[in-house]
Amino acid sequence: DLGLLRTKAVPNGDGTYRISGQKIFISAGEHDMSDNIVHLVLARVEGAPEGVKGISLFIVPKFKVDAAGNPGERNTLSCGSLEEKMGIHGNSTCVMNYDEAEGTLLGELNGGLKAMFTMMNEARLGVGLQGLSVSEIAYQNAVSYAKDRLQGRSLSGAKAPDKKADPIIVHPDIRRSLMTMKAYNEAGRALALWTAIKSDVAHRSGDDKDRQAADDYTGLMTPVVKGVLTDKGFDHAVMAQQVFGGHGYIEEHGMSQFVRDARIAMIYEGANGIQALDLVGRKLAQNSGRAVQAFFKEVGEFCEENRTDEKMASFTKALKKGLSDLQAATMWLVQNAMAKPDNAGAASTDYMHLFGLVALGYMWAQMAKSAQAKLAEGANGAAPFYDTKLITARFFMERIMPETATRLARISSGADTLMALPAEAF
Question: What is the pLDDT of residues 325-378, one digit of tens each?
Fold first, then answer.
C-alpha cells in the first residue's frame, strides 16, 4: 500500500533532496555491468499530504554525476541483501537502502504516483510479453520432445510401424496440450502486437480522435495482456513440463526452470489479482465506459460484417457467443457491483480471463479471415502455413472459447459463498 510509504525526502536547498528509506524486490538493483545505476524512488517530502497524494518521484543514481553527466562520487545508497528466489536466478533482486542519498525530483512535487504509473503501465505490457515468451519456449521444447519420445501405440493404429512404439505426439492428450499452447501463443502474439500498434497510434497519430481511441484501447487492454498472458505463461510451462513426464521434473531438460521463471511474471509489476481489480474497478467505468463500449462495438461489427460468409461462420459464431457472454458479465457487474463491492472483487479474475478469451478470439477470427484471403489468392507457396492457421483457429473456437460460459456462470454467482465463512473457519 503506497499510501503507507515511509521513505522521506528532505530538501537540500539547491534543488536536490536527501532520500532516506528502503526499497525491496528491486530487480538488478546492484551490479557491475554498467557505469552507473539510476534508481527511481518514491518518497514523501516533509509536510506533504498523507496517502498517495503526497508521494513524489526522485532520480537517485548510484554515482552522482558531474555537469558533463559523468559518474563521480558514490551516492549514499547500498544493497542490503540479495533475495533468495524461486526463479529468475540470473537477476539480482535487491533490498536497497537509501541513507540520505542525493536525489532529484522527477516531474511535479506530490505527482510521483502518476509519473510512476507511466513507467509501470509500459512495464506491464512488457511482463505480458515475458509470460508469452516463456509459454512459447516451453511449447517449442514440448513439441521437440513429443516428436522424439517413443511410447505406446496410436489409438487408431501404429503410425511408426518400423519402430517399437509411436512418438507421443500421436496421442490425443499430448495433442490437447500442444494445441492449447499453440493456440494461446499465436493469438497472444497477435494481441500483444495489436496493442503495441495502438500504443504507437496513441503517441504518434496526428488525428485527435484516433489518438484518444488508441489510448483508450491501450489502457483497457493493459491489465488483460499482463494478467492473461502471464497466467497462461505459467499454466503452459507446467503443461509443457507434463509432456516430458518424469523427465520434465528433473533438471536435465530444463523444463523446471521454465516453470520457476514463469511464476514471477504473475506477481511483479502488479500481481494479477490487482490487474483484474484494475480492469473491473477502474478501466470499465473510465470515461463512462467509453473504451469497453468501443471494443464491444468493434468486435460486434466484425462479426456482423462477416455474418454471411460461410467460410467464416465457425469463427464468427463462436466469437459472437463469447462477446455475448462478456457483455452479459459486464452488465451483471454494472447492476451488482456498486451496491455490493465484494461482487466486483469476487468476479474480477474470471472477468479478466473472460475478456482475454474474447480478445484472443477476435485475434483468431481476424487471422482466419486473412488466411482464407491468402489461400483464395493462391497462397504463393505458403498454403500449408495458412491451412495450419485455420485449423488452429478452429481449435481455439471449439475447445477454448466455450470457457466464456463457465466464466460468466462464476461471475453471476456473486460473492455470497466466497465471503460467507469467518476467518476462523479456514
Answer: 999 999 999 999 999 999 999 999 999 999 999 999 999 999 999 999 999 999
Residue 3 grid coordinates: 499510501
193-206 burial, b at 16+ Cβ within 10 Å, e below that, comes to ebbeebbebbeeee
* Residue 67: per-residue pLDDT: 87
* CA 334 – CA 319 distance, rounded (Å): 22
Distance between CA atoms of residues 277 and 283, nearest Å? 9
Which is nearest to 230 in space by CA: 318, 126, 137?
Answer: 126
- Please tell me which residue in 251, 252, 269, 424 is annotated as part of the active site: 269
Residues of the chain below pLDDT 50: none
Q: What is the pLDDT of residue 118?
A: 84
Sign of CA dihedral 168, 169, 175, 180: positive
Evaluate whether 188 touches 136 at the Cβ level (below 8 Å).
no
* C-alpha count within 13 angstroms, C-beta hemisphere, residue 88: 19
39 contacts 62 by C-beta, under 8 angstroms:
yes
Q: What is the pTM of this model?
A: 0.94
- CA-CA distance, 388 to 393, in Å (whole number)? 8
- Cα 298 to Cα 71, 183, 249, 366, 398, distances in angstroms: 51, 22, 44, 12, 22
Active site residue 269: yes
Strands (E), 53-167: 56-61, 63-65, 71-74, 77-82, 93-106
CA distance 240 to 248: 8
Give the C-alpha separation, 329 to 340, whole Å. Answer: 15
State the burial class of residue 84 (Cβ atoms within 10 Å of its Cβ: 0-12, 13-18, 19+).
exposed
**β 38-45/77-82 pair status:** unpaired
Question: At 41, which helix (H) or strand (E)?
Answer: strand 38-45
- Indicate the Cα dihedral angle 121, 124, 125, 129, nearest 10°: 170
- What confidence score (pLDDT) does residue 116 get? 86
CA 170 to chain centre: 32
The per-residue pLDDT of the chain, averaged, comes to: 96
